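Worked Example 4.2. Consider the chain below.
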Amino acid sequence: MEPMSRTERAALCNAALEAGEDAPTLCASWTVKDLVIHLLVRERDPLGAPGIVLPKLERLTHRSSRRLAGQDFSSLVERVRSGPPKWSPLSLPPLERAVNVLEYFVHHEDIRRAAAGWQPRELTEREQKAIWKAIAVSGKGLVRPVNAPVEIRWAGDERGRSVALRKGDDPVVVTGSPAELALFLFGRDQHSGLELSGAESSLAALHEARLGL
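Applying the procedure from the previous section yields the following structure tokens:
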């Protein structure tokens, strides 16, 4: 059975081709083509990739992105579909699964949910578990800007799974499906079915913070 990192990669590529290169996304001013270029720089450009997270190196990222911007959109999408090159650390299956489940799920939804009339997808239990496992780890970094304790809970889960992403007394509790929690933690407003509870001051701190990377 294919891991979710791969199935979401394929689904993102299909969604990108269907939407078209000039379609909007949830990533600020990025078009679908901009998003595809971001994924290629991240996986295939060892000089440009660090600038995605290190502001001092943004110039190298922009240079790599400009170089790809003039290339055929469908060819860029198929390059994403083919996966990381063999020389990339991301070609190692354990690392690829660890870092790409959320990357491709969230960016797939960035394309889907930028369109009018979007609806949440029906994900399998296996997919929801993969997302939960990923946000239980990555979520700690995503809520770092919040000046309050934060806990996430999986709504309707028989095991009552929850994770303290930022520890402390009387946390803000965000309850929902793993998929919708992931989008919330990445700072997307287009989410569905979440419940937030906690002290007013803590809720305000959560709403004021800029979540995500």
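Residues 5 and 173 are 28 Å apart (CA to CA). Strands lie at 150-154, 162-166, 172-176, 195-197. Compare this with Example 4.1 before moving on.
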